[in-house]
Amino acid sequence: MEQRAVRRHLYHIVDVKREFRFENRKRGLSGRVGATLVVILLTCSAICLFYLPGNSNHFPSSCSLPAATMNKFEESACKELTDAAADSEKPYCEDLQEITEVTGQGETLLSLMGDNIPDEASAQRVATIIANEIQRHSDPKLNARTALKPGTRYTISLNKDDQFLKATIELDPSNVYHIVSEPTGLRTWKEEVVLDFKTEVLCFKMRGSLAESVLSAGEGAKLASELAAVFRYDIDFQSESMRGDTCRVLFERRYADDKPSGYGQVLAAVYEGKKTGIKTAVWFKDQYYDEKGVELKKSFLRSPLSVIRITSHYGNRFHPILRVWRKHNGVDYGAAAGTPVKSIANGVVTFAGWQNGYGKYVIIRHNNGYESRYGHLQKYFVQAGQSIRQGDRIGLVGMTGLATGPHLDFQLLSHNRHVNPLSVIRIETPKTVVAPLKPRFLFVKQECLEPLLNANRQAFTKTDTGNRLALNNR
């Protein structure tokens, strides 16, 4: 009789287990909780059956477990049942989809979110909001469609229904952005990172391009681009640097939470070349000056392209397409299609569109009556009325209009008259440190530049792989 009652109790437990599993499926939970309950409940019922009085097939009726042991078993079983029920209320990790990747060439915030968030409207909203946060903190020019640096690390989390939960974008260790979905909407913020700077010295020989030389000395391409920017008014590293030239640089290394996170300011640099001679730079009052206090920055860049290769000079020439002699009002720079074109000076765009034989064309008005013009562009990124800063990317080299191949037709006008761009840029009057700031400049020069100028050159020239010497904290 007692056995039949226990069996009925066992059947009831199995029915409870089935209901529990059905409820779990409705809530989208894992079946492991139900499986755990099955094992526990069936084990309890089986033991009760085995130890029922009169079940002589297994144990004598007089055999029974001590009360303390039974109490301990009951407590353990109850605890496991309670834990299983509690766990059924927790989301399992299988319900969270987490994608962690790094960006490839040309990927944008919009493409990242669009590739990983099925809902198109949600993807656009997330990309736009996090782009606005990055604009506010670190990059005013970035938007949802701006290409991110290849290798940018990101993590996107979705729930089991492919709905957006949160994302993290790590532009670099000191620029980490988070965005999460909350009941009130999307919330985004920039992660607070403690930054520190230490000054170091790098010495290296030219072994090819500037980037290759810096990399062979154990540093990153970013430092090479910073050096190119420092000397961009005085050195064309494509045509004027030679193997065996030497360079010494005092720079800041940036640390985020005690981890290296890139470079800070280049504080001073000395370049000694066979063609260039000795070129110097020291950072003072937000500008670079040479050892005599002459500002390196000029009103005009040497060229609107990073690579300087002149294919046709200013003056009379035989037109390659029209087959007639006529005056060439500009300078042609040969470059691969898609090469970035930069504004040579601050100014305002007065025209961006199609201009007869010049194809896609941009005109920028500058101070002191100057105007620059850029022709045969593959694409332009500006519009009339837009303010431009020196070095801003305004378009890409192309061959639109009358052109035999990809190149940039660059023209410079002074008070509405064409002038030779190369002559104007070379005769510019230099600016110098103003008298009241001279004492301070001399102090900075002595601290940062003179140690590089007075370095033991013979010992340095024997340094093949680069020699970094830690100096002092900032």
TrEMBL record:
Any one GO molecular-function label of the UniProt entry: metalloendopeptidase activity
InterPro entries hit by this protein: Cell_wall_metabolism_enzyme (IPR050570), Dup_hybrid_motif (IPR011055), M23ase_b-sheet_dom (IPR016047)
Keywords noted in UniProt: Membrane, Signal, Transmembrane, Transmembrane helix
Any Pfam family matching the protein: Peptidase_M23
Coiled coil (UniProt feature): none
Transmembrane segment boundaries: 33-52
Domain M23ase beta-sheet core stretches: 327-421
Superkingdom as given in the UniProt entry: Bacteria
PANTHER family: L-ALA--D-GLU ENDOPEPTIDASE (PTHR21666:SF289), PEPTIDASE-RELATED (PTHR21666)
Name this protein carries in UniProt: Metalloendopeptidase-like membrane protein
Organism from which the protein derives: Desulfomonile tiedjei (strain ATCC 49306 / DSM 6799 / DCB-1)
Lineage of origin: Bacteria, Pseudomonadati, Thermodesulfobacteriota, Desulfomonilia, Desulfomonilales
